[in-house]
Design goal:
two-stranded antiparallel ribbon; globular; mainly alpha; Recoverin, domain 1
Length: about 130
């Protein structure tokens, strides 16, 4: 019994350490920079429309062969990894529709108080989730 308790404690400590190490890896300066890229009117908040404009602009930049889909190779150029989770049908490509759907999910998840905008604070808090998973 004592061994089970010690093992459980060790596991919890290891888990907490790994979460802390993960949190330290996130570049919050990049989050602030990306937030400014989204916030077109510089009012300190991102609307769904601003998110959509950013998403379309970034999609067009990444879609180098202009086939309205992002291949695995094109996705490698996305250093923010914001399109990473968008491939819902797992065909190794991200369509415009998948990208739009993913960005809608992003803003809905980061908008904690459900006022239809994401503040800089909400964006920064959600940034690790958006770029890592």
């Amino acid at each position: 019994m004592n061994l089970i308790i010690k093992g459980s404690i060790f596991f919890c400590i290891a888990l907490l350490c790994s979460v802390n190490a993960f949190a330290e890896e996130v570049d919050l300066g990049a989050a602030e920079s990306e937030f400014q890229s989204f916030d077109a009117d510089n009012n300190g908040a991102i609307t769904f429309e601003e998110m959509q404009v950013y998403q379309q602009k970034r999609f067009n930049q990444l879609d180098t062969d202009k086939n309205n889909s992002l291949s695995a190779k094109e996705l490698e150029a996305d250093k923010t990894n914001m399109f990473k989770k968008a491939d819902k049908n797992t065909d190794q490509e991200v369509s415009r529709q998948e990208a739009e759907t993913q960005f809608k999910e992003y803003i809905n998840q980061m908008d904690k108080n459900k006022d239809s905008v994401a503040t800089g604070e909400e964006f920064t808090e959600y940034w690790p989730v958006m770029i890592r998973f």
